Amino acid sequence: MTEGGAVADVQAGGTAAFWAPGSQVLWRYRENGGARVHICRPVTVVRDDAELLAVWMAPGTECVKPVLADGTPLHAEPLESRYTRPRTVQRDRWFGTGVLKLARPGEAWSVWLFWEPGWKFKNWYVNLEEPLVRWAGGVDSEDHFLDISVYPDRTWGWRDEDEFAQAQRDGLMGLQLAQDVREAGRSAVEVIRAWGPPFSDGWQHWRPDPAWSVPSLPDDWDRTPTHVST
């Protein structure tokens, strides 16, 4: 899904090597322990090269998110049953301010930047996850529950430790994976404490191209990639 003349560099076999700025792709997450995509967010490529993938999720973007089978939002369900009750997915829109997402190849986390209305920078958010897998239409991952918030004064704190623990109790994450996620988190904390990239790169001052359109959610948002690469 590309628009406005922004064309991905595509390798033989159909896998995108690097996308040109302005390309519109999908940022997706599979359900934990399964193959079904349950989160899909159309985004616009800001930068894509051997060092970094940066994408912009604009306000008003139509997305797909998981909900309980009866339509109840996940956050409204008590934590003890949140991961065991039947689920489905529904279309929705991102009504908050936009989100800039940054991911380095092979790294087990991505860094998201949030702003208050009027472009007042709020915080960075380290989302611990499976390293992104690239395919012709975007990137796929699996969320690992545990997160880290990082603030403009360089303080930081763990987020969602209760969900991380519950996911283990419910069998969505084995002991080895949980240990790997904790280790990835500690690695991210080392970067935060050293104030390394991307925190030191000034991305909080970045602004989207006003000519960019809001990407649309395709009907086949959950299609299975035929060619993937890391």
List keywords for this structure.
hydrolase, two-stranded antiparallel sheet, 3 helices, Ntdp-like, FomD-like_sf, 38% strand, disordered N terminus, DUF402, DUF402 domain-containing protein
Unreliable parts: 2-14
Order of helices and strands: EEEEEEHEEEEEEEHHE
Largest sheet: 7 strands, mixed, barrel
Distance between the termini: 20 Å
Morphology call: globular
User: What would you report as the Rg, rounded to the nearest angstrom?
Assistant: 17 Å
Number of helices: 3
Backbone structural class: mainly beta
Task: Indicate the multimeric state.
Answer: single chain
Mean pLDDT: 92
How many E strands? 14
Helix content: 10-25%
Major beta sheet, strand line-up: 3-4-5-8-9-10-12
Give the DSSP E fraction (strand runs of 2 or more residues): 35-45%
Keywords: Hydrolase
Protein name: DUF402 domain-containing protein
Domain DUF402: 78-196
